[in-house]
């Protein structure tokens, strides 16, 4: 068992979630239970699964949770793209968020 807060992937994904919350707060109110909620849940799933996996007793268990985090990162990547295509993110925010999620995916893949 290790402290998840020491994991670089957790630190990056945790900071990313806070940015997602900040930027998605400007989405239209009709998206509150749609895209806003789904994007936040998908992004939050990345560090949440890392925290849970770090508490497991074996490397195999941890690897399974890292794989779930990678899937959540891919889902988040699509939802960020969708938000951009719908005009909810500027090109600057989209490019910044896309770069960060790519970096998170690389770090997560490195764990495996």
Written description of the protein model:
It is a single chain. The chain is mainly alpha-helical. Helix content is 79%, strand content 0%. The chain is built from 4 helices and no strands. Helix 1 runs antiparallel to helix 2 (32-54), helix 1 (8-24) packs antiparallel against helix 4 and helix 2 (32-54) runs antiparallel to helix 3 (59-85). The longest helix has 27 residues, at 59-85. The radius of gyration is 14 Å and the shape is elongated. 29% of the residues are buried.
User: What separation lies between the terminal Cα atoms?
Assistant: 17 Å
Radius of gyration: 14 Å
Q: Considering DSSP H and I runs of 4 or more, what fraction of the residues is helical?
A: over 70%
Shape: elongated
Reading the helices and strands in chain order gives: HHHH
Main pleated sheet: none
């Amino acid at each position: 068992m290790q402290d998840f807060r020491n994991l670089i992937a957790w630190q990056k994904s945790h900071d990313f979630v806070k940015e997602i919350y900040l930027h998605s707060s400007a989405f239209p109110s009709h998206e509150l239970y749609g895209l806003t909620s789904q994007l936040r849940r998908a992004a939050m799933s990345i560090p949440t699964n890392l925290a849970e996996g770090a508490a497991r007793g074996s490397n195999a268990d941890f690897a399974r949770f890292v794989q779930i985090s990678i899937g959540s990162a891919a889902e988040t990547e699509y939802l960020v793209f969708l938000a951009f295509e719908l005009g909810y993110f500027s090109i600057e925010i989209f490019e910044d968020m896309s770069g960060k999620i790519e970096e998170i995916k690389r770090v997560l893949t490195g764990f495996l």
